[in-house]
Fold this sequence. Notes:
Layout: H1 2-11, H2 26-29, H3 39-46, E1 48-52, E2 57-63, H4 66-79, H5 84-98, E3 103-112, E4 123-129, E5 132-135, E6 137-138, E7 148-153, E8 158-170, E9 180-186, E10 196-201, H6 208-224
Antiparallel strand pairs: 1-2, 2-3, 3-8, 4-5, 4-9, 6-8, 7-8, 9-10
Amino acid sequence: MKNSILAILFSSCALLSPTKSLNTPQLITGGADISKLSSDEIAQNLTRETTMGGGIFDLQAIPLSKALLNQRWQELNNSRAFGPKDLVKTKNWHMSRFIDNKTCIDFHYSVTRFEQTKYLSNWKLILDIDGQSYDMEWMDLAKGENIFVSQVATPTHMARKWHNQAIACATTELPLEKGFSLKVLSAYVPWPFSSEAVMEWYFQPLTPEDEAAMIEREEKKKQKYRGW
């Protein structure tokens, strides 16, 4: 029962095309600003995508926020697909697994050419928030991986493309509503490309201190660019 509901919870989050039309911190905490959004719409606004290795790697990440999970549970409750007792029991199980005293990211990636990178052991996630870095650990790695293969057209031939997905968690509950970034590192990247990529989630400032921190981040971004 728990595994089947887990699949329902996250299956529609996978491989979404993000709209990112909202940047309210209520996407993390919940609130009136997002009360009319479906769980899929919340997930779309939380989704970030990027590439690595000159396009060899496609990456996607979604933070598992209280707002997202609570809305998905409400939809399941409205559908009456599960009995009230089963729904409460499994909700508590998933909240303790992904929310309480931890911070989790649903991570998807695909790769061409570098087949060895299809395994999670070749990937590492680091979450940065408030100047602190937190290593994330893959959940249920011992139970196997969700690897599958597809075909993709190249200018000369049909190539294999490997896909994988997993949830990684930090062992503390972090205030993601303040804004954060996720550093993705791969053990194998073709030269001369970087072995890391960064995805960012920044929301409307909650306090004057948060607004000052956001301005400082933007200034640092401008300083990094020096032109050719």
